[in-house]
Structures are given as C-alpha cells and as structure tokens.
C-alpha cells in the first residue's frame, strides 16, 4: 500500500479566535487564590522543591487489588456471599467431633470454588495492571537542566517538570501550556477520552510565555503557579502565574488535561501542575454503578428460602432426635440397646437429651448443607463469560464499515437482555447517523435541492403518495439518474446551480455570495493530500464539515488557512478557470449556545470589509436590516418545510462595513478584551452584538441527519416483540415528530397527545417576567394536559384498536417529573404505544429513565452514543452504547457496545432470549439437582432415627456438585436453544416469555423444587425397598450401608443427568459428552476410589462396587427401574403441558417439526393468535401497514353505506 503524506496548513489564529479565547475567569475567582480549596503551589522547572507538599508521582493504578491486599480483599468479597459464608462455617464445624463427615471432604470443594473465583478475579485485575503498566511507561520528553530534554517515563514525572509533547501524543499529566510551534501559542486538542467529543478544542498560551518555544530557552526559567486544589471539574481552572515579579491570571484556556491528545500541532511545551490521581481525569474516574440482574437477585431469595427450609428440617429432626434419645432409657430398660444409652457419650445421653438435641442440630446443619449448590455462583459466572464471548463474536452484529464488533463490556446482565420491557433511546447518532449531508438550500427566496429525505418518504407513504425516480420541485422535473460517486457530507442534486449552471440564474450574485459565505464563515482546518491534491477538513461539528464540502462541490473550495488569511479557489463558469481569492481575516466571533450564531469579518481582495454571519432562525431574523428582509417571507416558509422534512436549518446573512464603522468596532472590541473588570465578558458580548445588526438575508441551508440503516425494520421487530420504545432527544418537537414517522414510531391514524407550554397564555406570562406565576401556571397547564390525555385513552376493559402517542417538550417535562406529578405522567406514558420527549436535557433523560425503572419495576434499556447520554445509560438496568461519531464516552459507560442501532434486534430477540432461557433453566436445574440429593440425605437420616449418619461416603458428598453434575448444566447454559436464531427473528412475540419472566416465575421454580423432592422420595423408597431385606449377592448376603449408599447415589446421578437430557432442546456433541460422560466418570471414580485402602480417606467404599454391586444383577435392574420410574412423572407432565397447554416456543417447535415454521403465512397466523388485545396497539412498519389496511376497509365500508 502506497504511503500517503498529508500536508496540514498551519493555523496561527490569535486574531481569528479573539472572541473564543477571551474568557479568563472573573477577578473574583482569582482573588480566592491562597484560600481554602485554592492553595496549590507549583514551582515551574524546580520539581525537587515540592517535597514538603507530598504531591503524588504521576503513576496511576486502576487495579482493585495489590500483591499484599489480593488475598484478604478477595476472600472478603467471596465470603460476603451468604452461601459461601455458610459453607465456611460448615467447614470450620467439620473440624469438630460433631461433623458427619471428614473436614477434608467438606473444605476441599469450598476451596476449589473459592480458588476458581479468586483466580478469575486475579486474571481480570492482572489485565488492568498490564494496562496501567503500559500507560505508566509511555515516554515523554522532560527538561533535565541546561536546556536538555530527556525521554522519561510517565510515571516518573513530578509536579513542576517542564514537558515537551509532540504531535498526536497524549498529555501525560495536567499541564499549563507555555508555548507551541505556532508563534501565538495556539494548539489543537482532542478531548474524546474526557468528554466523548471528537471536535478539536483550541488552547492558547499566555502572551508572556510565547517566546519559550525552543529547548535551550528553558535553561533559567523559574515561575511560580498558585492555583486551585485538585478537583473533578473538567471545564474550570483558576490560577495565577508569577514570573519576573509580575502576576498573570490563568484560565482553562491554558490548561492541558491528561489523556487529551495533541492534534495538528507539531509540539508544545507545558509545566506539570497535577500528577497521577490528582489529575482531573482520575478525579472523574468513579466506578460505574453496580448492576445486578433481577434473576440474580431472585436467586439470592431462593437460596435464603432453601436455607430457611434447611434450618426448619434440621430443627424438626433435632427435636425428634431429642425426644427419642430421652426415651432410650426408662426405668433401666434400653429402647435402642445398640446405642448403649446406659454408657453413651453426650451425643446420645438420655440424661442430657436437650444438649444432645442441640449438638444434633449443628450436625444436621452441616449434613443438609448439600441443599445449597456450592458451585452455583462460579458456574453461572463461567456460563455468562462464555455467553458474552458468543455475543462478541457474532458476525451478524459486526459492522464492516466501522470495523467494530459488538462488545459485551460486562457479562453480569446477559439474561436481562431477554427481559427488556422499555427501551429509552437517544435520537441523534443513535437512530440517526450523526453524519450530516447538505441536501437543500433556499437562496434569495428560491428553493434549491431535489433530494428526498427519509422523513419525506415516510410522509409520502403516510399520505398515500408515491415517490419514485421522477421528483418534482416546483415546475421542474428531474428524470436523470445521477451516477456520480457519492461525496460524504454532500447529497445535493439540482442542475439549476450544479456544474456552474448557477451563473444562468437571475439571482446569481446572491448565489455566489451564499456559497462564498459557506466557504469562509467557519472554523474548519484544511488537510491537503500531497499525492492527489484533494482537500479534506477537520471540523468542530458534522454540520460545519457539510457546509464547507457543499461549497467545494459547487465551485467554492476552501483551500488554505493562515494566521491572517483564508484562501478560496473559485471556479469561473464563464471562462472555465479556477481563481484563487485570498480574504484577510480581521475578526472571528465564535458560535456559542447562548449566541446561537457565528460571524467572521473579512476584507475582500477588492478592499471591501464584509461581516459574514450564520445562525439559528430565532436570532438571525431579528438582526436583519429593513433593506435585508426582501426574501424573509419565502425563506421562513422554506425553513418550515425543511423542518417538517426532518432537516436542520441555518440562516445566512451578511453586511458591508465601511472603514470607519469597523475601526470603531475594533477599538471597542479590543478594549473589552484587555479589560480586567468583572463585566469583561459582558463588554465583549456587547461589542459583538453591536456589529451583528442590519444584516442582508442571503438564504438558508438544510442538512439531513440520515436514519441509520435498518432502523425502521429494527423498531418494527422490537415493537412486535412487545417492547415499548421511548425517544429522548434534544431536538425540537417538529423534527422529533417527523423522525418518529420516518422510523415508524408514529403512524397515520395514531392519536397524538401533545404536552407543550408553547401556548399563548403561558408565553404572555413569560413576557411579564413573574417567575413564580409562570412556574405555577406552567405546572397547572402540564397537569391539566396530562389529565386530559389519561381521559382520552379508553380503559383496558373497553376494547379499542386505537393507538396513542405521547409527545412532550423539555419545559413541560421539567414539571412532569416533579414528585407530585411524575406518577400521573408515567400512568399516561405507559398507556401509549410510543413516547417522544423533545428538548430533553441530559439530566432529564436520566430522571425519566429512573422513573420508568423504579415505578414499573420492569427491565429498562437505555441506548445512546454521546457524552450527554451517560447519565441515562448508567441509570437504566442495561446501558447500550453506540460507538459512533460522538466519541467513546457512552461506550465507556455502557454495559454492551454496538456499532449500529439495528444490531439491537439480534442482541435482544436472539441472544437476549437465549441467555434468559439458558440462565433461568440452568438455575432451576441447579436447585432441582441439589434438592434431589439433599432430600435423599434427609430421608436416610430420618430412616436412621435422625442419628446424623449420612447415607453416602464423605467424598461422594463432596464431589457431587463438582464432578458428577456440574458440566451438563454448564453446557446447557452455553449451548441450549429452544428455537433457532432465524425463528427467533421470525417470531418476535417469543421474546415476551422473558419480559413476563415465565421461565423463572415462582410457580416454575417451586415446580422444579417439587420435582426434586418427588424424585428423591421415589429414589429413596425404591432403593430401600429393593435392598432392605433382599439377599442380592451370590452368597446370600444383604446390603449394608455402604452398598445401599452407592445404589442410591448411582440412581441420583443417573436421574439428574437424564433429567438434564429431557430438558435440553438443542443437542450438540458437547452436551452428549458432558451428560453421558458425567455418568461414566461416576463409574470410573467408583472403580478407582474403591481400590484405595486408606481408612483416613474412606471406610465405606472399599471394593464395594467391584465385589458387591457389579456382579449383582439386582443392582443393574434396580438402577434401570428407578431411573425410568422416577422420570415418568416429569415426562408425563411435560407431554400433557406441550399437548394441551403449550407455551409459544412449544408451538413454534411443533411447526418446525412439521416443517411449516418458516412459512410466512403460518408465522403470521401463529403470531396473531398469540398476541393479546393489549399488544395490538403497536408501532412499527407492521402496525402502519395494518393500520392503513384498517383505514382503507373503513373508508370502503363508509362508501358502501352511502
């Protein structure tokens, strides 16, 4: 691949950015230097003078453990789980004579589980340590005296060091900018790692340090910086610099933050102010909120339930044991003579029956501990990690264009993906691409651009119109297909002004001025490819880039920028030549959220001074002069049409300045800049405001933020799955509504309930300025609108096919989220098919998410792509980050990262459904197999007069959960599928099994536990009945405890593994190996273990299988009979349930068996029968299609009646 070199035109714009760089903080802030919170002192170029302050070094650590704390902290984490703590207590008690088994057999399984979990924690922490090591050992150049800069590791940096950072490198610490390769100390910084924004920020050094731009000039530099103490605020900084007996105020404009990257600047010099964990990025690095799935929380309740049951049966047995022990010796007569009650130890002493009963209680608690699955937690963690691995490697959720796969950043919430009830989605960059395309414009009252937006397509479908290759625009028809390659950011088609044809238009002078303004009035930086000569642009926003690209494509190419000039290459359509026009930049007044506009003052080659301005219509129309409003009415109409089409609009205007007027403004503006008074910013704003008046209207631009590929289809599937979808956006209401139609969240015939404060009486009160009266009236109006909306929706008892959509603006949402209103608002919202919240702030997004989550108690999923979505993502049960154009902030705060919204369909309907089903069945089965095993122990102890004697050998007890039953359940958790991925998508209604939590309901959990109790009873009584009095060996011997225990244990292993085989829907070779292999391992273990002659290890299993059971036919017959008889109840129940009370997945499985599952008509009929009446009010393409059919039938019926 040929190497490409790019030449970046250097920008040195101190005058250019005079407005943007003017803020230095108020004098009140700097007066606080030296007080509490503002006490930090930094000696620049003298790092060794800071020993008394004990500033930390620059190394950082994000690990949870250290070498010293790993064992104690990790053990504490493990034993915070009640089950692990219970097994620890049991293990300690096993060291006493009370234990019914050896201490080793009790402690080994616990140690294995704890060690495995600690190893997992250790590996994860080791990876974090490696990341820290890589970061701390990055190299940067540091001044080491006499003007020499040496390469030093980041972790060795100290406060006060002077650092040289070169292009495309990260800043190693928080530093004060001293100078750069630009004469005016400008540098460009990318803060994506801090705030998720990809646009470049401009920093500028103080004027007094600009000449420190060479290594040798730092030989004798000594400065003292006094500033604020370390804090988490990224956007503020207060400090002063003392140098050469003068003090200079410092502002955020001089602060370079750790983890920001130097861009488009060859090098900078900076002084280290904050190091290590004192840096602002580390001050902000709080742990994300801990999230646990609802199934995991319910699992804890089940464990508490089993522990309570365990305690009850232990108490019951101990009471009976105490009564029977007391009755063992009466009047010298021994009832159970074989226990020798006349000479018994304290454990069987009739005279101390109460104490014996208490000791038995402790023994029983240890013995019945096998009701609790010791390997449950570690097995679930292993399964979830493997599930996450499958999600990460799903090729269907890989975005080839951005080369980004889906990434499950945490595996704790896999099953929650199959239980989502409500999705709360951002719009820009989530539903849309956040890649702006210039598509239309209005110039001198004439609309240009024949492209059709996706919103317009949706509107046309809504109205029953057709959109095809023939596109009408006024009287003009375009039938030619444009086969030119698509230019990113430019989707404009209109032969009237393309290819230089604008020269033939009657308003050609205004068209020329319009595109000149687009080519000049911006902050973009050009990059020229040396090989091809093509120009690309670094822009602060996608809108800016789209404007400059549009000007270039239409013959006005922004080409070069220098400190004082901007060069545009203009194509002369008449002579067909390209001319370079150089404009001298006099001032640039930056865009801000309060100004809502930006302006640039330039001098043309001909000598005219022009003010070029662009901004929002709400501020620009007010600034037009009397002679500049000629096309205002037509332009207003066009921008309203553009807004209805889902486009973003800006107004373009200009004015010619005479020399005298400009000089007066410049004098006033410069005086405001150098002012040190508290009202300095107001003076600058006043100066800018005075010149941006009496403008001449040129026209308006319209750019489209296109819907992401597959969004309408994805929303349709999610809606069919019964998932409610809310959109929380900062866009205005008209744009949000139109996007709602485009992606099928809204449809024709759907009743819109609009809650807004843009009403005459409220606006009149706002003009009066009485804040209390405004708030009171606004809140009452919102409450009234909510009440009216609730009344408009028919009650559930009244069947209705009408669908409702709730649309609310940001002002109204402020009052709707107040404590005394929010539940009424939620009541209205949950009754609507779709909800759109417009003009929402990041805080409001988070509050709405919290309200839905806490009030409905259903699983919520938030999805967004920007830093403003972080609060919403962290508040929701599941946060999905889209790795889009707004940086990685949302991804870093998310639980799962995807590249496109459409992948949400497969993530939820396929992987979510599978994970929910697998985890639910897996946990139920875990409790089933342990209840089965535990109840056989209880029954045998009852059979043996609650003597505390276990039915099984110590190591049989210990290895039950570890070897003989654990692997099949892990295989089920990883591989099982009730239906294929294709059928999951074809039958989205299947997803409701997770939303309604059908597979992990208390009815189902108790059913599995009951099945375990029943199986244990059948196993115990069949085995005891078969072997109690039967001479099963050739020499006529009957079974002893050792033989009976092995028979019962063999039956338990067979039954629970065969039960697993019956529960599996999708067999793989791995599941066959694990299920039948576990049974085979039991027999192999019995063979090997039976040959060991160590009394300390075993005294009940020696040769029991080889000599006693294997030669006996009865053993094999009983095993076969007990397994079949025990599984009959479950098999019968399952057969009846599937035949007469089938669940939805059973119906799909039956259709698949008949080879009809993939027939679209069969799928439609099955799905329509499955849906309840409440699920008929859907959104999406299907609902729109069904609604259109219904409306057509209604119209036809009306015509027939007429």
UniProtKB/TrEMBL annotation:
Mg(2+) binds at residues 426, 428, 865, 869. Keywords: ATP-binding, Magnesium, Membrane, Metal-binding, Nucleotide-binding, Translocase, Transmembrane, Transmembrane helix. It comes from the Eukaryota. Its EC number is 7.6.2.1. The active site is at residue 426. Residues 891-1142 form the P-type ATPase C-terminal domain. One of its GO terms (molecular function) is ATP binding. It is a multi-pass membrane protein. It is an enzyme of class 7 (translocase). Pfam families: Cation_ATPase, PhoLip_ATPase_C, PhoLip_ATPase_N. The keyword NAD does not apply. This is Phospholipid-transporting ATPase. Residues 42-105 form the P-type ATPase N-terminal domain. It comes from Eragrostis curvula (weeping love grass).
């Amino acid at each position: 691949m040929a190497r490409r070199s790019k030449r970046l035109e250097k920008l040195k714009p101190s005058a250019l950015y005079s407005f943007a760089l003017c803020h230095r903080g108020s004098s009140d802030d700097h007066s606080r230097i030296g007080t509490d919170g503002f006490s930090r002192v930094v000696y620049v170029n003298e790092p060794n003078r800071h020993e008394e302050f004990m500033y930390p070094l620059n190394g950082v650590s994000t690990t949870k453990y250290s070498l010293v704390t790993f064992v104690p902290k990790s053990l504490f984490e493990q034993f915070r789980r009640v089950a692990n703590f219970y097994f620890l207590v049991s293990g300690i008690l096993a060291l006493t004579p009370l234990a019914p088994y050896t201490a080793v057999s009790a402690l080994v399984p616990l140690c294995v589980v704890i060690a495995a979990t600690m190893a997992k924690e250790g590996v994860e922490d080791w990876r974090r340590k490696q990341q820290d090591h890589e970061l701390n050992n990055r190299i940067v150049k540091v001044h080491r005296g006499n003007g020499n800069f040496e390469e030093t590791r980041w972790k060795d940096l100290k406060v006060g060091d002077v650092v040289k950072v070169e292009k495309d490198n990260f800043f190693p610490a928080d530093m004060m900018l001293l100078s750069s390769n630009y004469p005016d100390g400008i540098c460009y910084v990318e803060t994506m790692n801090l705030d998720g924004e990809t646009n470049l920020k401009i920093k500028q050094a103080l004027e007094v340090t600009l000449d420190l731009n060479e290594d040798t000039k730092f030989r004798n530099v000594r400065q003292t910086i006094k500033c604020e103490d370390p804090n988490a605020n990224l956007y503020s900084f207060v400090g002063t610099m003392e140098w050469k007996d003068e003090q200079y105020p410092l502002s955020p404009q001089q602060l370079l933050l750790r983890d920001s990257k130097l861009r488009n600047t060859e090098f900078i010099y900076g002084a280290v102010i904050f190091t290590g964990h004192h840096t602002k990025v580390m001050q902000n690095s709080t742990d994300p909120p801990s999230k646990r799935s609802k199934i995991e929380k319910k699992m804890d309740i089940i464990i508490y339930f089993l522990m309570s049951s365990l305690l009850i049966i232990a108490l019951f047995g101990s009471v009976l044991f105490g009564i029977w022990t007391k009755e063992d010796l009466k009047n010298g007569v021994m009832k159970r003579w074989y226990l020798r009650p006349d000479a018994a130890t304290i454990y069987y002493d009739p005279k101390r029956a109460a104490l014996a009963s208490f000791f038995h209680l402790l023994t029983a608690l240890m013995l019945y501990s096998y009701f609790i699955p010791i390997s449950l937690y570690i097995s679930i963690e292993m399964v979830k990690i493997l599930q996450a691995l499958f999600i990460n490697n799903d090729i269907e959720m890989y975005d080839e264009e951005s080369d980004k796969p889906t990434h499950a950043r945490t595996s704790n919430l896999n099953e929650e993906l199959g239980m989502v009830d409500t999705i709360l989605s951002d719009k820009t960059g989530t539903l849309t691409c956040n890649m702006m395309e210039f598509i239309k414009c209005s110039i001198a009252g004439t609309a240009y651009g024949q492209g059709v937006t996706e919103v317009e397509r949706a509107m046309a479908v809504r109205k029953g119109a057709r959109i095809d290759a023939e596109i009408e625009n006024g009287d003009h028809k375009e039938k030619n297909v444009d086969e030119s390659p698509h230019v990113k950011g430019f989707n404009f088609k209109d032969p009237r002004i393309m290819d230089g044809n604008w020269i033939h238009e009657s308003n050609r002078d205004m068209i020329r001025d319009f595109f000149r303004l687009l080519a000049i009035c911006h902050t973009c930086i050009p990059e020229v490819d040396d090989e091809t000569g093509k120009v690309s642009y670094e822009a602060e926003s996608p809108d800016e880039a789209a404007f400059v690209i549009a000007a270039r494509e239409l013959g006005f190419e922004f080409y070069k920028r220098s400190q004082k000039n901007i060069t545009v290459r203009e194509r002369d359509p008449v002579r067909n030549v390209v001319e370079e026009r150089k404009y001298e930049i006099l001032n640039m007044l930056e865009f801000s959220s309060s100004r809502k506009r930006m302006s640039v003052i330039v001098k043309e080659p001909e000598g005219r001074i022009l003010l070029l301005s662009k901004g929002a219509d709400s501020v620009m129309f007010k600034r037009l002069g009397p002679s500049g409003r000629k096309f205002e009415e037509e332009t207003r109409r066009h921008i309203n049409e553009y807004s209805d089409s889902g486009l973003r609009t800006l107004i373009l205007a200009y004015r010619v300045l005479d020399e005298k007027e400009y000089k007066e403004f410049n004098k006033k503006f410069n005086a405001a800049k150098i002012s040190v008074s508290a009202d300095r910013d107001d003076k600058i704003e006043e100066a800018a405001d005075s010149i941006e008046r009496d403008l001449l209207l040129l026209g308006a631009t319209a750019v489209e933020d296109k819907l992401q590929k597959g969004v309408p289809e994805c929303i349709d599937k999610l809606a069919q799955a019964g998932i409610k979808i809310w959109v929380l956006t900062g866009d205005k209401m008209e744009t949000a509504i139109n996007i709602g139609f485009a992606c099928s969240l809204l449809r024709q015939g759907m009743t819109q309930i609009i809650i807004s404060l843009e009403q005459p009486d409220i606006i009149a009160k706002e003009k009066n300025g009485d804040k209390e009266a405004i708030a009171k009236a606004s809140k009452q109006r919102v409450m009234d609108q909510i009440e009216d909306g609730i009344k408009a929706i028919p009650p559930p008892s009244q069947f209705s096919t009408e669908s409702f959509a709730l649309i609310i603006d940001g002002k109204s949402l402020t009052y709707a989220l107040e404590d005394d209103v929010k539940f009424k608002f939620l009541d209205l919202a949950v009754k609507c098919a779709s909800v759109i919240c417009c003009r929402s702030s990041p805080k409001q997004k988070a509050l709405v998410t919290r309200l839905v989550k806490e009030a409905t108690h259903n699983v919520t999923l938030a999805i967004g792509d920007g830093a403003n979505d972080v609060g919403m993502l962290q508040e929701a049960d599941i946060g999905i980050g889209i790795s889009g154009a707004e940086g990685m902030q949302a991804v870093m705060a998310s639980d799962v990262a995807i590249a496109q919204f459409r992948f949400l369909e497969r993530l939820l309907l396929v992987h979510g459904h599978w994970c929910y089903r697998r985890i639910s069945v897996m946990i139920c089965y875990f409790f089933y197999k342990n209840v089965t095993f535990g109840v056989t122990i209880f029954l045998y102890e009852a059979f043996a007069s609650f003597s505390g004697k276990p039915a099984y050998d110590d190591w049989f007890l210990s290895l039950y959960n570890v070897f003989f039953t654990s692997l099949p359940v892990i295989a089920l958790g990883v591989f099982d599928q009730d239906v294929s991925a294709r059928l999951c998508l074809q039958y989205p209604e299947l997803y409701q099994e997770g939303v309604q939590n059908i597979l992990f309901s208390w009815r189902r959990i108790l059913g599995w536990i009951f099945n375990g109790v029943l199986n244990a009873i059948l196993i115990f009584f069949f085995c005891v009945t078969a072997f109690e009095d039967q001479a099963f060996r050739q020499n006529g011997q009957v079974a002893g405890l050792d033989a009976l225990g092995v028979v019962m244990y063999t039956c338990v292993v067979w039954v629970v593994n065969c039960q697993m085989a019956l529960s599996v829907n999708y067999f793989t070779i791995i599941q066959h190996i694990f299920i039948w292999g576990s049974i085979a391992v039991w027999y192999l273990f019995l063979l090997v273990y039976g040959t060991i002659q160590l009394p300390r290890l075993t005294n009940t299993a020696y040769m029991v299988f080889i000599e006693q059971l294997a030669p006996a036919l009865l053993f094999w017959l009983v095993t076969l009979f007990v397994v079949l008889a025990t599984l009959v109840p479950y098999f019968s129940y399952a057969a009846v349930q599937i035949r007469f009370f089938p669940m939805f997945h059973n119906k799909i499985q039956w259709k698949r068996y008949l080879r009809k599952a993939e027939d679209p008509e069969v799928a439609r009929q099955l799905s329509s029968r499955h849906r309840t009446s409440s699920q008929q009010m859907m959104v999406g393409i299907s609902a729109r299609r069904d609604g259109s059919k219904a409306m057509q039938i209604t119209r036809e019926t009306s015509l027939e009646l007429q």
